[in-house]
Amino acid sequence: xxxxxxxxxxRKMLRCYRFLSTYVTKTRYLFELxxxxxxxxxxxxxxxxxxxHSLAPLLQTTEHRYRVPRLSLLEVERLLDKFGQDAxxxxxxxxxxxxxxxxxxxxxDLGLNSSSSTHASLPKSEMETELKGSxxxxxxxxxxxxxxxxxxxxxxxxxxxxxxxxQFCSRSGQPTKKNIAGSKRVCPSNNIIYYxxxxxxxxxxxSDGTRCLLARxxxxxxxxxxxxxxxxxxxxxxxxxxxxxxxEEVGLEVESMQYSASQHWPFPNSSLMIACHATVKPGQTxxxxxxxxxxxxxxxxxxxxATALRRKGPYIQQQNETFQFSVPPKLAIxxxxxxxxxxxxx
Length: 346
Known about the structure:
Distance between the termini: 48 Å
Number of strands: 16
Helix content: 25-40%
Low-confidence stretches: 1-14, 313-320
Strand content: 15-25%
Oligomer: single chain
Shape: globular
């Protein structure tokens, strides 16, 4: 950078930053907050806080959708004081993003008990009354949230869950300490640094050219079929994971595959969904379902899938107790895979 900005370095550096995009300046600001505890504490003074209780976000209902309230630092301090807690509880918050104007956003869970602190869980129902909202399970609320709110809450829940489950060093057994931003935890006894992690998952839409293969697990809503998905094994590439999962779950051999997109998914734990399209060898399309993994799997035609994509509203139970064939909702990356396949057919 100094080669282009010249000397004196600091003065010229400021000039160079003026030419950087909003995205770059925001990204570098977040990096600074993650690395500098003092800068992050300062950002809390003018930042906004999303509240959680036992990993459930605070939501307010408005016109059949959910609104996600944000509190200032002063409002959080007043809330803590009213319920007999001091402002030190704010140190449990985690940084989850910022606006283009560099207003930092934090998430704070008031229902989790930290084993390394004296902070106790705050009463849920009394807080809901005070805040005029409800702490709602995120899985139930995501389809009534806009994309920005859902992305932030996904990040917040994943970080809060990771910190709750990684409070001790796996080497020494001693309590670890998080930095102000929550971007890492450090063991004071040996200085080992732990960073939040996601588990890689391949999700694959298999096609034989004119049909696509969809499957369901017993935990899915009735009638819903989705793409095949499974965790990557240690030592596997994405390509190898796709081949193995398709062979394991439906007994088919992949001939070729193509990467599509990726998505962070917080349920049941934090995963990186790596979405791919795959085709199977001609003449080898007979499905052999692995019932340890799946409840059912089948080939679906273009017309069947296109009709399911156009269908709006909740999953519908028919009078004969069967259910209409449905696909995952738009927020899920499986929906994107299925939509891409339909568009390719046309």
